[in-house]
């Protein structure tokens, strides 16, 4: 097997240009899910890439954007690995902060720059590179592969749960490789086991039929003030969410999870430097920084009210709105949290503040002692030459719960490198060396998984 891996590594190293060309073609499609742009074109391009590798690939409808579902039979037909990716990307704005246009991929300084170069088209292509290498060296795949590629991850995957339920039989698997992963800035592979859930809402209030003259500010209500007072009721300076019942069902990190957290290097200094801070919220230091994802959150993501142009305009806003995301833990259901939010606002006298639910996902967690986790750790060290770090819970959200709740272990080797990829930001990029190593890692993982 070591000899085969050497051949696989050699194949990957010799064929990078071809995969980067395919990645560039993917990144040229502006598949921005928030604006419903390019989704059909990109879905069919992904299906074509899979079909060219021998997969039976279909572009299937959902209640939103199309989803690509593909399957290929491997040597060990009794083992199936599912690979999950998404072809949609974040909006590229602000455009003026890109060095080169976001949908015109550019290779410089050993990196490829484009929206989606890392998240998640680069991850998808690295896995296709692993498949190509396995086929070239062995003539077949080591196990069955099922590929699920959706087009709404960046807007909360609202239609994926119904799709997974509808195609549950075709999605049966013994393990899953999720959308993204990688190493920290020192090149140590990081294996993230848990993802928080999320409730995303928009609060809105109308106080007047039209904007008013601010000379009447002591006579007529101001929508912005109504919204600010409502928001202030949700969380205190102690960072505790004040919605009654919000923390019901939430458990602290287990003894095993705490053990893993304490083994992680502290990101305190890096976070403070990145954001120009003297200290983190609540004075968190050491292992408490890594443990922060075990606290659910209430975050104001954006606010809008009144005049915000250049200069002054003395108005009383008629309407105001705010977008909020709540990051949730196992035991918290997003739609139950939305009901608690409604009851809280009503009880505080804010019956006039409306709630629009924009998305909801549950948390998903993997047992750190699952055999698949052991395989990804072993194969990571073989590729990167450093022991892997197990991260029990990430701060972000991804719909892995759709499989973890069905008993499927989920892991995520990938092309990431610390915080340097600038995913969701201008100048998103992926280092070519990380692409190469991710392909090597996935190839090893599939081969070892097939033997288990």
Short description:
This protein has 452 residues and is of the alpha/beta class. It has a six-stranded mixed beta sheet with strand order 1-2-6-3-7-19. The chain is 32% helix and 22% strand.
Keywords:
single chain; 452 residues; alpha/beta; Aminopeptidase; Alpha-Beta Plaits; 2 domains; six-stranded mixed β-sheet; four-stranded mixed β-sheet; globular
Spatial order of the strands in the main sheet? 1-2-6-3-7-19
Task: List the domain count as a whole number.
Answer: 2
Q: Name the structural class.
A: alpha/beta
Beta-strand percentage?
Answer: 15-25%
Number of helical runs?
13
Q: What fold name stands as the CATH topology of the largest domain?
A: Aminopeptidase
Shape category: globular
The total of beta strands comes to: 21
Under the CATH scheme, which class of the largest domain? Alpha Beta
What composes the largest sheet? 6 strands, mixed
pLDDT averaged over residues: 96
* Low-confidence sequence ranges: none
Give a written overview of the molecule:
The chain is an alpha/beta fold and 452 residues long. It has two domains: 2-195 and 364-451, Zn peptidases (Aminopeptidase, 3-Layer(aba) Sandwich), CATH 3.40.630.10; 197-250 and 296-361, 2-Layer Sandwich (Alpha-Beta Plaits), CATH 3.30.70. Helices cover 32% and strands 22% of the residues. It contains 13 helices and 21 strands. The strands form six sheets. A six-stranded mixed beta sheet has the order 1-2-6-3-7-19. Strands 18-9-8-20 form a four-stranded mixed beta sheet. Strand 8 and strand 9 form a beta hairpin. Helix 1 (2-14) crosses helix 4 (121-138), helix 1 (2-14) packs antiparallel against helix 13 and helix 4 (121-138) crosses helix 13 (432-451). The radius of gyration is 23 Å and the shape is globular. The two termini are 14 Å apart.
């Amino acid at each position: 097997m070591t000899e085969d891996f050497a051949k696989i590594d050699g194949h990957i190293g010799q064929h990078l240009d071809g995969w980067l060309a395919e990645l560039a073609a993917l990144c040229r499609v502006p598949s921005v899910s928030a604006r419903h742009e390019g989704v059909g074109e990109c879905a069919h391009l992904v299906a074509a890439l899979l079909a060219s590798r021998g997969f039976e690939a279909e572009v299937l409808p959902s209640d939103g954007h199309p989803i690509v579902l593909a399957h290929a039979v491997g040597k060990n037909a009794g083992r199936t690995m599912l690979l999950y990716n998404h072809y949609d990307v974040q909006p590229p704005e602000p455009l003026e902060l890109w060095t080169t246009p976001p949908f015109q991929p550019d290779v410089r300084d050993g990196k490829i720059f484009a929206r989606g170069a890392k998240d998640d088209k680069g991850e998808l292509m690295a896995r296709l590179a692993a498949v190509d290498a396995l086929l070239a060296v062995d003539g077949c795949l080591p196990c069955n592969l099922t590929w699920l590629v959706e087009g709404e991850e960046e807007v909360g995957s609202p239609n994926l749960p119904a799709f997974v339920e509808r195609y549950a039989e075709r999605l049966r698997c013994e393990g899953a490789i999720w959308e993204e992963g990688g190493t920290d800035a020192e090149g140590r592979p990081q294996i993230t086991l848990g993802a928080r859930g999320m409730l995303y809402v928009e609060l809105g209030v109308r106080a007047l039929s039209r904007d008013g003259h601010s000379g009447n500010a002591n006579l007529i209500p101001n929508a912005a003030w109504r919204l600010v007072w409502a928001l202030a009721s949700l969380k205190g300076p102690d960072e505790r969410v004040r919605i009654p019942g919000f923390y019901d069902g939430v458990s602290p990190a287990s003894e095993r999870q705490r053990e893993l957290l304490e083994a992680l290097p502290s990101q305190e200094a890096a976070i403070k430097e990145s954001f120009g801070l003297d200290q983190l919220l609540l004075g968190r230091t050491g292992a408490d920084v890594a443990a922060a994802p075990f606290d659910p959150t209430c975050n104001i993501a954006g606010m809008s009210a009144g005049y915000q142009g250049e200069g002054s305009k003395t108005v009383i806003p008629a309407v105001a709105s705010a977008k909020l995301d709540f990051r949730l833990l196992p035991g918290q259901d997003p739609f139950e949290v939305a009901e608690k939010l409604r009851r809280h606002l009503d009880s505080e006298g804010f019956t006039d503040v409306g709630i629009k639910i924009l998305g909801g996902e549950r948390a998903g967690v993997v047992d750190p002692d699952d055999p698949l986790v052991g395989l990804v750790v072993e194969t990571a060290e073989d590729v990167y030459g450093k022991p892997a770090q197990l991260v029990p819970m990430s701060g972000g959200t991804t719909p892995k719960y759709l499989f973890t709740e069905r008993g499927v272990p989920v892991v995520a080797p990938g092309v990431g490198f610390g915080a340097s990829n600038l995913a969701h930001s201008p100048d998103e990029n992926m280092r070519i060396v990380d692409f190469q190593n991710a392909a090597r890692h996935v190839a090893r993982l599939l081969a070892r998984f097939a033997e288990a």
